[in-house]
Structures are given as structure tokens and as C-alpha cells.
Amino acid sequence: MKLEHVALYVNDLEAAKAFLMKYLDGYPNEGYHNPKTDFRSYFIRFDDGSRLEIMNKPEMVDLQKPLNCTGYAHVAFSVGSREKVDELTARLKSDGYEVVSGPRMTGDGYYESCIVTIEGNQIEITV
Question: What DSSP character marks residue 97?
Fold first, then answer.
């Protein structure tokens, strides 16, 4: 069994797509639109074949996203080296994104940083 993809509802589909392309080297598909429900989505593919679906539909409830709550905490992206973790973290911080932790070596052996990005959702950048 494998994890097929992870999905994320967003308010601004085009901004989320642009972020994933600019910072995480994602490749979007042509997009999908259901004119009957006005549901829209993109699948963003990454070099290893993993995919993140970003979605939008009218009248979504936009709840607060505290970092320490039950549910999905973050999506982790492996960038291949400590240097790349450091570089991407610095780039995101310089561009105004909140760095929650790191870069640092965690107790369970990961070199990582955590950043609040797309509409208050957290991503982890790791080796």
C-alpha cells in the first residue's frame, strides 16, 4: 500500500499553486473545474512522484488553524541536504513566512525546520 496523495482546501487556489511551484519545485496539472458545483483543484506533482492536491469550492468555512491541535499537523518536504534546508528556510523567512522552529536536529534524528505557509498551514522542510 502507498499514500496516493494528500489534499488541502485553500481559499486562493492560484496563490497556493504559485507557492508550491516557486518554493517547492512542484509541477501542477492543467487543473480541474466542475462547473456544476464550482469545485476547482490542481494536483501538484513533485520529482519523486508524490502529489499534493489543492482544492477550492464556494462557501468553505475557514476555521482558525492553531499549530498545536488535533488533526494533521504538517506536510513534510525533503530537500536532500542540510544546506538546502537552511537555504529554503532562510528564503521563506526573508519572504515573510513565519519560521516556527529550526533549522535544527530533532531528538528523533531529523534535520528540519517548520514554517507557517499557505493560509496558515505548516510545512516541514527536512533533509
Answer: P
Predicted TM-score (pTM) of this structure: 0.91
Among the listed residues 64, 61, 44, 62, the one whose alpha carbon sits nearest the alpha carbon of residue 53: 44
Instruction: State residue 65 phi and psi, 5-degree precision.
Output: -125, 70
CA distance 118 to 115: 10
Q: Is the dihedral of CA 20, 21, 27, 33 positive or negative?
A: positive
C-alpha cell at 10: 485553500
Instruction: Express each pLDDT in 55-73 by its tens digit.
Output: 999 988 888 878 887 778 8
Q: What structural domains does the chain harbor? A: 6-56 (3.10.180.10), 75-126 (3.10.180.10)
